[in-house]
Amino acid sequence: MVRILLGLALLVPDGLTEEDFLKLHRDLKPPDAEKWRQIPWKTSLLEAQRQAAKEKKPLFIWSMDGSPLACG
Fold it and tell me: Per the domain annotation, does 23 fall within a domain?
């Protein structure tokens, strides 16, 4: 998120004011009500694997290589 906003600052001739930055941050942030935000995501693969085995549930892995800003 910060990289996107910093990139936007480079596109604005006079840069972003703190007020502009905060408005963009609010506007670009996904709403808390979105269903995927309610999932208790794990950042540790081993922790997620142990929990999935304990609860006998599948493991969903989202993986990327490189910067998310350069994907495409």
Answer: yes
DSSP3 helix / strand / coil % (the chain, rounded to 5): 50, 0, 50
Global confidence as pTM: 0.46
Q: Provide the domain limits for residue 38.
A: 2-55
Report yes or no on 71 lying in a domain.
Answer: no
pLDDT single digits (tens) 26-54:
998 888 888 888 888 898 999 999 999 99
Residue 69 lies in a domain: no
Distance CA(65)–CA(58), nearest Å, equals: 23
- Distance separating the N- and C-terminal Cα atoms of the chain: 17
